[in-house]
């Protein structure tokens, strides 16, 4: 449901809490509109993200998503609420029968339509495989994650919409100046980016020199914005999906 023009003037009413989240995360209503509310006061300090706060990074991720033009991140903004200022994001009603990212028995990996990420063993020591859809919308999410340096793309952070679209959520651990990419979407390692993906990178690079750069200035440090522009340039110049690098884990934990 679209937001009313006076949404920020409406009272934000908390209706429940999402207890699986590591930080304070609440279901709320703005009039008839359902939203997710993450107050800054509910954030846990992180030693490796010392600058700013997670809410600002979530808002910044939405702005970059809009510059790409791919609708990766649902409408997200900052506003005051019952527990103080925080991030508010439009609630998404997902299709529970769809799984864009899945863990399957190692001998049951589909031959078509899916990408195999890696093999492992479950808690019962049974061989399993991490897989994800081989779709244009997930490819774009992987490009987005590379640019914003997403350190926490879990399977559960991919929302499966009934119409086949996929939203990405939970972008508090993004925009670090050091390489932090941890994701379950590694299915296209070293494959060429297509023309639409390269065009998206160009849109973001151009926007960073104008309106996007100005909008990000209150949300991120100058060094983080410079690093963001650098990742855009490097990914566009390489013209292909990256591969894991460095000593840090390539995937988040837990995976979902």
From TrEMBL:
Protein name: Phosphatidylinositol kinase
Keyword Kinase set for record: yes
The UniProt record lists the keyword Transferase: yes
InterPro entries attached to this UniProt entry: CHP03843
One MF annotation (Gene Ontology) recorded for this entry: kinase activity
Domain of life: Bacteria
Keywords: Kinase, Transferase
């Amino acid at each position: 449901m679209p937001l009313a023009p006076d949404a920020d003037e409406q009272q934000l009413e908390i209706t429940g809490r999402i207890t699986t989240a590591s930080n304070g995360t609440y279901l709320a209503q703005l009039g008839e509109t359902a939203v997710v509310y993450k107050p800054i006061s509910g954030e846990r300090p992180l030693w490796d993200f010392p600058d700013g706060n997670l809410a600002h990074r979530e808002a910044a991720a939405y702005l970059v998503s809009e510059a790409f033009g791919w609708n990766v991140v649902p409408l997200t903004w900052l506003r005051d609420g019952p527990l103080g200022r925080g991030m508010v994001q439009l609630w998404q009603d997902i299709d529970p029968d769809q799984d864009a990212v899945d863990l399957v028995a190692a001998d049951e990996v589909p031959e078509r339509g899916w990408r195999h990420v890696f093999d492992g063993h479950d808690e019962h020591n049974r061989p399993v495989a991490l897989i994800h859809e081989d779709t244009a919308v997930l490819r774009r999410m992987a490009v987005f994650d590379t640019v914003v340096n997403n350190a926490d793309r879990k399977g559960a952070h991919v929302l499966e919409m009934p119409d086949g679209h996929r939203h990405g959520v939970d972008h508090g651990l993004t925009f670090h100046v050091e390489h932090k990419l941890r994701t379950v979407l590694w299915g296209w390692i070293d494959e060429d980016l297509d023309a639409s993906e390269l065009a998206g990178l160009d849109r973001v690079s151009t926007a960073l020199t104008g309106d996007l750069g100005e909008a990000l200035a209150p949300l991120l440090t100058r060094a983080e914005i410079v690093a963001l522009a650098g990742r855009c340039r490097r990914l566009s110049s390489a013209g292909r999906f990256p591969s894991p690098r460095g000593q840090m884990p390539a995937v988040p934990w837990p995976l979902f």
